[in-house]
Write a structure and sequence with these properties.
single chain, alpha/beta, 12 strands, binds uridine-5'-diphosphate
């Protein structure tokens, strides 16, 4: 069997307060036909990035609804993760080589993992390109059981054709595919069912739950951040698509007018992301010893509570992505009534209505300009912050996503 990720229990009733009683009732009803059903989610890492973040809540809630849900991990290798990271970047449009050797490495791992996939589930949800090819191998090796859903979390609005052409036939073996939004759908996808389901955040996770200011201040103090001075924060993997260097450029422009400004750049390093280390070093070099740029990682014990405290204490949240599947961090900031200045790309556009629930920017200059506006206008922070919270409450809390999944599963039965 593939290794199983432990998941803590979650009580759906606890969500009545943040999400509303109607939403909880609707979800219970949608889950009724699935009592006792078995659902297996498979991805490649239990830590780092949005997918692992989502699954913890998703699995906990499914179990509370009487669904036997599990989360298991495929076993990769350094070479495999280098290839799948290239595939990820290529599917987001990067012009990078995709070689016969990479295909070999990829399929070798699929063949090694496939026999360990338990065949007794009713539904399989396969996340992203890393485990995507499992189904092809399973079909060659044994009778295919259950319904198979491929959940693509990445921004495939303009993929590198060579890489998409490699993966498309594997995708087309599935019963259903989930994209985050319509813009990411590709014409080569011909599966019985295509669904558009955006990710969501868990209002009760350690990352999003209410923290009293004293706790947040204690965290800031611990990391040497001054709570009396303005703070701009970007939380994201060290990855060129997240553009941390662009964020530093924007900060340097704003800093001329706001010399007190501090920039907090928080990034986790996941074991399936070999590029992360390299990019962390590049960011560190770009910082050029500026003490007001706080570059922090999970290795300095920046976990969910700390991220929560940084987001909550920020004057402005930045997510200057150049491509973005969704950007959970955007909803995380909005839920904390913050103005998020986000790249005008992918899933960020689902969350931020420019000037209403945040700001969308297309360049470093625009990013600097909007950060400056947010810093100088408390009224704007109040107005947009409140609208942002309500947008997330209505559209981007976990229960909605789970209901969408159940609707899709129902359509496959
Ligand atoms: N995250 C974190 N610590 C970090 C970097 C990221 O906890 O140092 C979390 C972040 O709060 C969010 C998730 O990882 O919940 C990233 O998801 P997102 O959709 O923003 O981006 P992805 O990494 O999936 O591209």
């Amino acid at each position: 069997m593939l290794p199983t990720v432990p998941v803590s229990p979650i009580r759906l009733d606890d969500y009545i307060e943040p999400a509303g009683e109607d939403v909880v009732k609707r979800l219970r009803k949608a889950a009724e036909p699935f009592k006792g059903a078995r659902v297996l989610h498979i991805n490649s890492t239990a830590f780092g990035g949005g997918v692992s973040e989502l699954l913890l809540t998703h699995l906990g809630l499914m179990r509370d609804l009487g669904i036997e849900a599990n989360w298991q991990l495929i076993q990769g290798s350094e070479e495999f993760f280098a290839a799948t990271k290239a595939a990820h970047n290529g599917l987001q449009g990067a012009d990078i080589p995709w070689t016969a050797h990479m295909e070999q490495v990829y399929m070798e791992r699929m063949r090694a993992n496939a026999p360990d996939v338990d065949g007794s589930y009713d539904f399989y949800v396969i996340h992203d390109p890393q485990p995507l090819g499992l189904l092809e191998v399973i079909q060659e090796q044994r009778r295919r059981e259950g319904k198979w859903i491929w959940r693509c979390h990445i921004d495939t609005s303009s993929p590198n054709p060579k890489i998409w052409d490699y993966f498309a036939p594997k995708v087309n073996l599935y019963d259903a595919v989930i994209f985050t939004m319509k813009d990411f759908e590709q014409p080569q996808v011909s599966v019985p069912k295509v669904a558009f389901i955006s990710p969501t955040i868990d209002p009760l996770s350690m990352k999003n739950v209410y923290l009293d200011p004293d706790t947040s201040y204690a965290v800031l103090r611990h990391y040497g951040i001054d709570r009396h001075r303005p703070i701009a924060t970007q939380v994201s993997r060290f990855d060129p698509w997240k553009d941390p260097l662009g964020v530093i450029d924007a900060y340097r422009i704003v800093k001329k007018e706001w010399p007190q400004l501090q920039l907090v750049l928080v990034g986790s390093l996941a074991h399936d992301d070999p590029q992360g280390w390299q990019y962390l070093e590049a960011t560190e070099e770009y910082r050029r010893g500026d003490d007001d740029i706080h570059l922090l990682t999970n290795f300095e014990h920046v976990g969910n509570l700390e991220v929560n405290a940084f987001q909550r204490s920020s004057t402005v949240i930045v997510q200057k992505s150049l491509r973005e599947g969704f950007g959970l961090v955007v909803s995380e900031g909005m839920w904390k009534k913050k103005v998020v200045v986000g790249g005008n790309v992918g899933g960020i556009r689902l969350q931020l209505s420019d000037g209403e629930t945040g700001f969308l920017v297309d360049s470093v200059d625009e990013c600097a300009d909007r950060i400056g506006r947010v810093l100088s206008d408390p009224g704007l922070r109040y107005r947009i912050g409140n609208a942002a919270l309500e947008r997330v409450r209505g559209e981007f809390l976990s229960l909605r996503e789970l209901e969408d999944y159940l609707t899709l599963m129902e359509s496959l039965r």
